[in-house]
């Protein structure tokens, strides 16, 4: 007898369900994101055969209620991925039983990074792993491994399968400690009456793998596709059910990939790792500041170096500003790459009100070198000094580093981890630093002169002296 199915509609962005189709979601206000899905009319959840504790009528649970004060607080065991940058983004390594979602644009190197990681874990740590390839054949994976020179002495297990139930049964037999699903968008469950990649299939497949990982203590890494706007494809619940969500971004004109964590239950959020793209795979960059500071030999106006805090470490990043006369009476060109557009408008108003610089008839362009996205306010002072440098066509010293938050009253506010930022700048040979007075360290590094400022006018005055 054919099982009856029930039709419903669900929003791709917020996962809100509707009985009928409509153009706009009433919850997230998004247009054309509601798609048609199906489920069994009885509403009974799928019960995989591998999941211990289910029978035909009742659910037998072995878990008991515990007091919060009695829960063991021992440190979570982890094992390394073989890449220090990957471990940093994950918070120190892979936690057994955790579920990790790795997203990125096509050709970013997701499969290459995971194939290298599994080979290193299998060879160096003697940990049993399983690579589930749903998009590529075994020959294609072997060709990539040969190109990356990973084939010799590699005991990596590969499974070409897209059925979730069969994957879980195979994992129960093989008993790996780490399993990679490449990718979650091509996986399907037998009892879900929709095509692979649909909202229902992705949601149920991810939930099934998450439950399997928690019950069996197997770490699972799922590869996720992205849409044309750069967000992860599938329902938003996909990011909620995983323990760690990371993105691998690579610019079309760059040879470096940036791995960033958007969510991490076992480490810092917005942690950043840098990899170099080579013909032999991805290689980690242990000193990202040296990559982002590839500056020209000649001094140019409108360029300054700032120290931003990414996750658990400081990074030296160059910021560029271009101020030009507008061709119209009311300039509207305020183009920003790597920073917040509204933040630039605020800083231009502060620069006019408290710095005495009129730029109402100027176009302003701002760019953060290296494709870094700066979200913290410690870049305010560096951005303003770069704008002043471009406006007056006067280059800033090459060995000057700047950081600090600028308030609406023109005051310079302190930022977190000031000592670590100064140490990072001194390590790269910077001799001058302009920073908030509250961040001036008690012990100044050798061969470095630090200027602590309270107001914007103080910083502008110091520029005339150095």
UniProtKB/TrEMBL annotation:
Domain of life: Bacteria
UniProt domain RecA family profile: residue ranges: 75-226
Motif (RadA KNRFG motif): 263-267
Keywords annotated in UniProt: ATP-binding, DNA damage, DNA repair, DNA-binding, Hydrolase, Metal-binding, Nucleotide-binding, Stress response, Zinc, Zinc-finger
GO process terms (BP): recombinational repair
CDD domains: RadA_SMS_N (cd01121)
UniProt function note: DNA-dependent ATPase involved in processing of recombination intermediates, plays a role in repairing DNA breaks. Stimulates the branch migration of RecA-mediated strand transfer reactions, allowing the 3' invading strand to extend heteroduplex DNA faster. Binds ssDNA in the presence of ADP but not other nucleotides, has ATPase activity that is stimulated by ssDNA and various branched DNA structures, but inhibited by SSB. Does not have RecA's homology-searching function.
Domain commentary: The middle region has homology to RecA with ATPase motifs including the RadA KNRFG motif, while the C-terminus is homologous to Lon protease.
UniProt record similarity statement: Belongs to the RecA family. RadA subfamily.
Protein name, per record: DNA repair protein RadA
Organism from which the protein derives: Candidatus Palibaumannia cicadellinicola
